[in-house]
Design a protein that fits this description.
By secondary structure, this protein is of the alpha/beta class. It has two domains: 2-264, Transcription Regulator spoIIAA (2-Layer Sandwich), CATH 3.30.750.200; 331-381, no CATH class. The chain has helices spanning 23-26, 30-47, 71-83, 99-116, 130-135, 142-155, 173-184, 208-214, 223-239, 258-264, 294-302, 317-328, 337-343, 346-355, 376-381; strands spanning 2-6, 8-9, 21-22, 58-63, 92-97, 120-126, 160-166, 195-200, 243-246, 249-251, 270-272, 277-280, 285-290, 310-315, 335-336, 359-360, 365-367. The protein has a nine-stranded mixed beta sheet, with helices on both faces. A three-stranded antiparallel beta sheet has the order 12-13-14. α2 (30-47) runs parallel beside α3 (71-83). The protein is globular and about 60 Å long.
């Protein structure tokens, strides 16, 4: 499993706290800046040659906004992976895109993505209401999200995932219903999106949204409103035939995200680029992370000392067990009853079962039922 973080955006979304730089601010010659990033990334990739990247053969290019990169730079990145012995075809090769980039760059750009081996596209739609999109500081409008989706389909992208956000106080029940129906009918060919991810809006430190809250110019939606929106999400997508396989993720049968599903199964992975995290094995379980700073990232490569942008920690048995339980209980598969009982308070597990916050399955596993997914954090914390 390989994750590559592309730290460039054309603008910052109101809610986002992921590390990125405004591409046009980085350098007068944007192409040169992108190429320098690709060169630095290539050096980091080379440093992982021979390192076990988990048992799942996937590549995920996220961000930031990967689709701001020209095809020439994306080709360099993929070539660097091959040179380090990390080559496709990947079982799943996902690339995140912004609708506006797809419209601006058109069919040729998407064709180039497919030629590189991309077989899954994740598009950040977030909303089909132009007022909400403007408030989010998204670059696209609702019509362009539909147009971008049409371009992806026309070129032959079969596996498309779209992102939606709920938990906004300005998202009325009628508007949320309208959003969900537009998501299901986004294809001009009459196809349902193969995958939908829907996340509750959260206020992250350092985001523009956090500043708005601090100034008193915006207030979070109530817990009751968020719960109602989540329940409606589950109902509508369930009726449409989607498998709710993880708290925030829904897929048509056979189109579950392979890469992300491996995260939830605690499979080791390599993260590349500024701000990326890795989870590695080799005698012990180690989490590593790159400092979210593009300048330091460049300087480290120039000095041939990538260690200056990395932090790490060795996980002990208790930490590993905690993570396995937390991640597994986010999914509809859940976790084996024997493992849960061995690593949590058995009395707490029994209490959660009695309250309906956990259920036993026919294959000796325990999971959180869908109608309790919304309170999963509280359910999981009660087990320790």
């Amino acid at each position: 499993m390989i994750y590559i973080h592309i730290p460039f955006c054309r603008s910052f979304c109101t809610y986002c706290d992921f590390y990125s730089e405004i591409a046009s601010r980085c350098c007068r010659d944007e192409q040169a800046r992108f190429e320098r990033f690709a060169s630095a990334l290539s050096a980091e990739i080379a440093s992982y040659a021979g390192v076990e990247a988990g048992s799942v053969n996937t590549l995920y290019i996220g961000g930031g906004t990967p689709s701001v990169l020209p095809l020439s730079v994306l080709r360099d990145v993929v070539k660097s992976l091959s040179a380090a012995g990390i080559s496709g075809p990947f079982r799943e090769f996902t690339m995140e895109v912004n609708p506006e980039d797809i419209i601006e760059k058109g069919h040729e750009y998407v064709e180039g993505m497919l030629e590189l081996g991309v077989n899954r596209v994740s598009m950040g739609v977030q909303s089909f209401d132009d007022g909400i999109l403007k408030w989010m500081n998204r670059r696209h409008n609702a019509a362009n999200a539909v147009k971008a989706y049409e371009i992806l389909e026309d070129v032959g992208v079969r596996n498309i995932s779209i992102d939606l956000i709920f938990g906004l106080p300005q998202l009325s029940p009628a508007l949320w219903d309208e959003t969900l129906q537009k998501a299901l009918s986004i294809s001009s060919k009459g196809n349902l999106p193969k995958h939908i991810s829907s996340y509750q809006l959260s206020v992250e430190p350092g985001s523009a949204l956090a500043s708005l809250m601090a100034k008193g110019s915006w207030n979070e939606a109530s817990e009751e409103l968020c719960a109602a929106q989540y329940a409606r999400l589950c109902e509508v997508l369930g009726t449409a035939g989607y498998n709710h396989y993880e708290i925030s993720n829904f897929s048509l049968p056979g189109f579950e995200a392979v890469h992300n599903s491996a995260y939830w199964r605690h499979v080791p992975y390599i993260g590349l680029g500024p701000g990326a995290h890795s989870y590695l094995t080799g005698g012990s379980f180690v989490r590593k992370w790159n400092e979210p700073d593009l300048v330091r990232y460049f300087d480290a490569v120039t000095a041939k000392d990538l260690s200056i942008v990395q932090g790490s920690e060795i996980l002990d048995d208790e930490q590993i067990a905690l993570e396995k339980v937390m991640l597994a209980l986010r999914t509809s598969e859940g976790i084996s009853e024997s493992y849960l009982m061995a690593n949590c308070q058995a009395s707490a597990v029994e209490a959660a079962l009695a309250e309906g916050n956990l259920v036993r399955t026919s294959d000796a596993r325990i999971r959180i039922p869908e109608n309790r997914f919304f309170i999963s954090d509280a359910v999981i914390s009660s087990l320790f």
